[in-house]
Design brief:
By secondary structure, this protein is α+β, with helices and mostly antiparallel strands. It is built from 3 helices and 5 strands, in the order αβββαββα. The longest helix is centred in the middle third of the chain and has 22 residues.
């Protein structure tokens, strides 16, 4: 079964890619909690993050640290919060949310971003 994330990775659904390698695909969340909210997804389609094999899990976490630094530096945030919930889409994924305080990591803040906002943030991060 192909999830929406597998379709994004395959290029069947457009996205605002932040980073890609042989293990992961990272892209902007279209319903961000904060500007630059990024989803990091293992290319291996596994429902639960902790069911990944040890090597893939280690590679994913290395990439989390790499993408975190990109987001923190490019967006000038104090920290990047990490959230793993994994209930809505049956494909492991990690939310990386740039923040300047703990009050900014709140699912209730999520709202659809306009195409213009996504393009602007994408350019800030990748440019």
């Amino acid at each position: 079964m192909s999830t929406i994330f597998s379709k994004i990775i395959a290029g069947e659904i457009p996205s605002y890619k932040i980073y890609e390698d042989e293990y992961v695909f990272a892209f902007l969340d279209i319903n961000p909690v904060q500007m630059g909210h990024t989803l990091l997804v293992p290319k291996k389609e596994v429902d639960y993050l902790f069911d990944l094999d040890q090597e893939t899990y280690a590679r994913v976490m290395e990439r989390v640290q790499f993408v975190e630094e990109i987001l923190r530096v490019k967006l000038r945030s104090k920290r990047v919060g990490l959230v793993v919930d994994g209930y809505l889409i049956p494909h492991a994924h990690i939310h990386l949310i740039p923040t300047n305080g703990p009050h900014e990591i709140n699912e209730n803040l999520a709202k659809p971003a306009s195409k213009e906002e996504l393009e602007r943030v994408h350019k800030l991060i990748t440019g």
